[in-house]
Amino acid sequence: MLNLIRALFGGKPPVSPLVRLRRAVEESDTATVREVIQAYPHLLNQQDEKGETPLRWAAEKQDLSVVAALVDLGADTSLKDKLGYTAAHLAHYHGEFRMGCYTDVSKRIVQRIEQSSASHP
Predict the structure, then answer these.
(1) What digits encode the pLDDT tens for the residues 107-118?
(2) Rounded to 5 degrees, what angle do the CA atoms 80, 84, 86 make?
(3) Is 49 exposed, middle or buried (0-12, 13-18, 19+ CB in 10 A)?
(4) Which residues, other chains included, contact 81 with Cβ-Cβ below 8 Å and sequence gap of 6+?
């Protein structure tokens, strides 16, 4: 069976779109983030068992380029995880946690999220 999978998929088993999206966020690959969301738009605001979304992953990672791409694609900035935190909360928390004060990146991420929230009430 494994040989059949390798033959069909060039030696690698297929990767689900959600796993591909998660990897793209982790690797700051905005082109792949856009490609996956355009092919599977339902993943943009999909929450996992913890209530986490791709926007939350990017905010936690402090990745402004991926946050901006997800917001531009229409990510819902008001979604909360199971603990009640939004992507903006996570951006602030992880910016402060890393530096002892809010980083420039965390401030810019929150501003980008808030701009989107204001223009899409």
Answers:
(1) 788 888 888 766
(2) 45
(3) exposed
(4) 47, 50, 51, 52, 53, 56
The Cα–Cα gap between 57 and 38 comes to 18
The third-level CATH classification (topology) of the domain covering 2-119 is 1.25.40
* Dihedral over alpha carbons 36, 39, 45, 48 (to 10 degrees): -60
Say which amino acid occupies 4.
Answer: L
Overall size of the chain counted in residues: 121
What is the model's pTM?
0.75
What does the alpha-carbon distance between residue 115 and residue 121 come to, in Å, rounded to a whole number?
A: 10
- The answer to whether 23 touches 31, Cβ cutoff 8 Å, is no
